[in-house]
Amino acid sequence: MQRAALGSTTAGRKGFRRHRAVTLTAAALAASLVLTACGSGGSDEPAGDALEVWIYQDASIKVQEAAVDRFNEKSDVKVKLVPVPGESYQDRMRTAMGTSNAPDIFFNWGGGSIRSFVEEDMLVDLTPEFEADADLSSAFIPSILESAKIDGKYYGVPMRGMQPVILFYNKEVFKKAGNEQPPSDWKELLTLIDVFKEQGVTPFALAGTDAWTELMWVEYLLDRIGGAEVFNKIRSGDSEAWGDPAVLKTAETIRDLVDRGAFGNTFQSVDYTSDGASTLFAKGKAAMHLMGSWEYSNQQTNQPDFAEKGLDWVTFPEFPGGKGSTGNVVGNPANFWSINSKLEGKEREAAIEFVKTAADEEYVEEMVDNGEVPATTNAENMLIGHPAPGYALFQYDLVRDASSFTLSWDQALPAQQATPMLTNIQKLFNKQLSPEEFVEEMKSLK
């Protein structure tokens, strides 16, 4: 995607929060003078009673490590980052909350991943902070903030990059088929399925062993057919909304895609975690791949030549007669910091100041350097320094201009609904449930 040259980055950075630890810095200075007078020895390590900050352990953690170091230099109340292995993160978090081992601040996905904690009054309501701090409230893209909003109140501050689901396509495969344009509407998409099948190419790579990859198709189709409002009702607890005609139409469309051979004949045995679907796509065995924005960095790592020369991307196409806008996006808007309500006094104040640092200029710059696309309103000009500026700007524009950004359903819904939902979706793709049976199974989820 080509973009005109952007102007000075300085202008684009106005409005970022600066020096948010001023009050705590003064307190830290006073505390340090007292300690010095008493002859206490200094240490760069946080004290044993430092606030525990749990985070999903991955390659992006270095941004948060740097933020912790900066904060601890200025605050008398220290924070300590606790990386938790990704495969056990959610289970460990759910088990720990409400116990003496619960984190003070923790990484999450917003939506359903924190709703039960809100209902049990375990999280700090951050709405007053957003209302009182104009810089903070204007720092983030509104549709991103909505993802951490529960019953009209904010319980999270965005702290990782945006992860919309994007339709990727292989330019070389399209060129060989004599069609260099990706589909802009459903009629074009169906035509391309036939074109690529005739070429002996699977139209869409799909890792059918992982139900969450199939979920992406269901999410976008329901959005394009019924609009974002249908799932918003479901997410708010209205299980009868699964009976909306748009849900049945979505299920019927999935069955039609499967019957047409849109995903080939072996997608049920293809996985994502070991790079199965991505490799088929990169090697030209598949023409397109609907996947989260991380697919780009995945291809850069494993298929760098393809990422540089053959990979391109586009928004999910419109559906004929559908109510949803092509500007609507699904995926993971961002990850968030939330605060345990057990904290009081200066510890709670320090925790609030720490999570606010995710809106600071230095933090956002480091996210860009790390290859992330920040959820901040003023990040656009910084993205010229992104490792892949064209792709980053596509993502940023997509999300910034989105009419709505629907959180991935398996994160938006509570676990007791999300797990059987994924099972039902996989059964729908595998023809173990008819579209009508799928709807009835989903309506029974409470």
What is the number of independent domains? 2
Instruction: Estimate the mean pLDDT confidence.
Output: 88
For the secondary structure, the number of strands is: 13
How many whole angstroms does the radius of gyration measure?
23 Å
| Structural class computed from helices and strand pairing | alpha/beta
**Distance N to C terminus:** 43 Å
The top level CATH class name of the largest domain: Alpha Beta
Overall shape:
globular
CATH architecture of the largest domain: 3-Layer(aba) Sandwich
Give the percentage of residues in beta strands.
5-15%
CATH topology of the largest domain: D-Maltodextrin-Binding Protein, domain 2
Unreliable parts: 1-47
Give the biggest beta sheet.
6 strands, mixed
How would you name the CATH homologous superfamily of the largest domain?
Periplasmic binding protein-like II
Task: Characterize the quaternary organization of these chains.
Answer: single chain
Which range best describes the helical content: under 10%, 10-25%, 25-40%, 40-55%, 55-70% or over 70%? 40-55%
Count of helical segments?
22
Structure described in brief:
This protein is an alpha/beta fold and 446 residues long.
